[in-house]
Amino acid sequence: MHVDSPRQANALLKKAVPLMRKMDVAPTPYNYGIWYEYVRQTSPKLNQLVDTTIGRLGSLPSFVSKELFHQFLVAEEARYNNEHKDRLEQLVENVSQSTTDMKSSLKTLESNVAKSRKVLARADRAKHLDKVINFLDKGTQKALQDADEFSKTLSRVNKEVSQLKAELEEIKNNVDLDPLTQLLNQKGLERQLYTLVPSSEDDLSVLIIDIDHLKSVNSNYGRRAGTALICHISRVLQSRKLENATLARLHGGTFAVVLHEATLDFAIEYAEILRTHLNKQRLKSRNGSGILPSIQVSIGVATIIGQENPANLIARANGYLDNAKRQGRNRTASR
């Protein structure tokens, strides 16, 4: 949803409600949300799905509206985040209550009109005319007030849903990051690869870098030393990062480097530069005494072949990493 002014919300509502009546659509919060977006015409895909569904079924069932609401009006993450899910349910409840109030006042108004007709049908209708007018005026005012309140509620919900979507988008971005190093995590790396693979032409390479003997470091010097080593390597990789590279920490002491437009030979050469540079690093404790005389890593390098998918590309790089480990560690392998 976009943020609309009260005037815009009213104008859109005046378009949406007649359509809902014409299609005999139930006045549920989900339906109001979908048809509100439908008349705005800012989501062609949503409008197409609504038109297609109506063309096939003759109507838009409530369960379809609910699915479309979650798909187009609220990000998918809201279903899995308790805080945002509660907020969304509260928004729906607000609209539902406002809808109930409006329907109640309209029914009251209809009842008042019916009673007024009966009174005016009597012979002494002139005698009761002032009372009837006052009776109808009060009922009309109440209906207008509830309709206006419903419009304001819809506008408030509109703004809150927009804010909710912005928060969820930020969460989505953070979900792709490793909290320790702020590099991409495994999920973020996979997302990136899926966007790069379709346009690559045998020039997309992946380096899987793993710290040698990290368990020994944790055992001998404590987990804080292991964590410090991981953070240090992260900083080194960032300092040596190429313009066409993407960095990620997959798990533990395992990192990944994706090189766009890089041949296998270039990727191997770059991997060796990184490995040699890390070998020269010294990790020191806070008091200045050396903990590790040398930082050693093993690297597996793979370059995409034909229409290879991201999962297989990563699997090959991991396989070559295993080969580097078996060959004695602290080396690069590409087969």
UniProtKB/TrEMBL annotation:
Residue ranges occupied by any GGDEF domain in the UniProt entry: 202-335
Gene3D superfamilies: 3.30.70.270
Keywords noted in UniProt: Coiled coil
Coiled coil: 81-174
Catalytic activity annotation: 2 GTP = 3',3'-c-di-GMP + 2 diphosphate
E.C. no: 2.7.7.65
Pfam families in the cross-refs: GGDEF (PF00990)
Superkingdom classification of source: Bacteria
InterPro entries given in the database record: Diguanylate_Cyclase, GGDEF_dom, Nucleotide_cyclase, Rev_trsase/Diguanyl_cyclase
NCBIfam families linked: GGDEF
Name assigned to this protein: diguanylate cyclase
Lineage of origin: Bacteria, Pseudomonadati, Pseudomonadota, Gammaproteobacteria, Lysobacterales
